[in-house]
Structures are given as C-alpha cells and as structure tokens.
Design brief:
disordered C terminus, alpha/beta, five-stranded mixed β-sheet, disordered N terminus, single chain, 136 residues
C-alpha cells in the first residue's frame, strides 16, 4: 500500500542514497522512518539502478518519487533520472548537515524526517518554505 500526500491520494515512494558517509547512513535511516510512519513507501534504489523492470515500473507508476541524497553528488536522484523519472530531491548537506562530521543519531534522523514531512508546500509546487527541497 502506497502513502498519500497532502490528502490528494498520491502514491509516494522514497529512495535513499545509503552512501558510505555519515550523511548516506542518515539518508537511509530517514527514508526508513518516513516509510515506517506511512509518509511514503521505501523501495530499493539498487533495483532501479540495476534496471530491474519491476522497480523501474514502480517508480514510473508512482505519483511522487522522493529521493534523499546525503551529498550534492546526488546519486539517488541521478539513478531515477537515468530511469526516466524526475523525483523530488532532498540533499542533506543542503539542509545543514556536514559530510564526515554529522553524528548518526536518532535525534538527527528525527530532525531530517520532520523537515521532509514538513515540506508540505512542495506538494503545492511552492518550495519557498521547504529548506532542501527541489520540487520537480
């Protein structure tokens, strides 16, 4: 079952970069927290990157694809774009986290999760108050 956004009945899928740096781990834990809370369904970014048809079609069929990248290299976003999908992109270093210097704590994950959930203006196509959100 997919999650709904802003009451509009949209199916939302979330992907995390899960890179080797601290911000990659925070990205992964945040995506899991968003999925556990019902905000969006987390699915496998590696499956999309491997061009596995089921994962690619799920991404193409979602109303909204959300990617959480740890750093500006934006691997997760680029994987979805390569598959022909334009995701809503969050980059943790643009939200104030510092790669290689941010402790991976539950508190940090909760703050990032709240920032992403609170970016409701993005659902309306206005990211003026949504720090780190690139509406696409």
């Amino acid at each position: 079952m997919m999650s709904e956004c802003c009451g509009g009945g949209k199916t939302k899928v979330v992907y995390a970069c899960s890179g080797s740096a601290d911000v990659g781990e925070i990205s992964d834990k945040t995506a899991r927290a968003l999925s556990k809370s019902g905000f969006a369904k987390m699915t496998c970014l590696a499956g999309v990157g491997a061009d596995l048809s089921g994962f690619v079609e799920s991404a193409k069929g979602a109303d909204e694809n959300i990617v959480i990248d740890g750093c500006p290299v934006a691997c997760a976003r680029k994987i979805l774009e390569h598959a022909g999908v334009t995701p809503k992109s969050y980059i943790l270093t643009e939200m104030g986290l510092i790669k290689g210097q941010t402790p991976v704590t539950e508190e940090v994950v909760q703050v990032v999760t709240r920032l992403i959930k609170g970016a409701k203006t993005c659902c309306d196509g206005d990211n003026s108050g949504a720090r780190g959100c690139c509406c696409g």
